[in-house]
Specification:
Elements (H helix, E strand, L loop, with lengths): L4 H23 L7 H8 L3 H7 L3 H21 L6 H14 L1 H10 L4 H24 L4 H20 L4 H12 L2
Helix pairs in contact: 1-2, 1-4, 2-3, 5-9, 7-8, 8-9
Amino acid sequence: MAKTKRDQDREAKHDEIVAAARALFIEEGYDASSMSRLASTAGVAPNTIYWYFKDKDEVLVAVLDAEFSASLEAYLSLSASNPVDRLLWVANKLERVSRLVSTVHSRLEKSPTIYAWHEQFHSLSEEMLRMELQQAGVAKEMIEARVKISVFTIEGLLAHRLPEEEKRAICAALLSV
């Protein structure tokens, strides 16, 4: 069934709110971005946001979904590059949105919505990492341990900013056979 003008307008307004929230949350942080500030940035009345989202955590999940979708599309276009370059790209992409990553981790125990998103994100990203490790020739019996080591290492890279060449060496070590 074709979308009506009202459906299209609703979808466009939803996307505008998400785009405004994405910019605010990445640049200034989730906690520093009030719903009234978000409404102002999106060019809507504050109560309008609640027509589209139950609460601020639901806005955050929409932002995370938008960021993940854009990143996944870009990641898939890297498929011809070498695995180290792809893993380094992921680490750098996560570093760029480190405020979102920190917010997700700080809200896990407070928000079932955020917790569910985080679990789904890890499930998908860990499966992608398994495929990378298999393609790199890592022994089957080592893959699960390498997935966990890699996740912890990438999260550590977010907490401890390193020069690009050091990050590259770490990514190469994670994918070495």
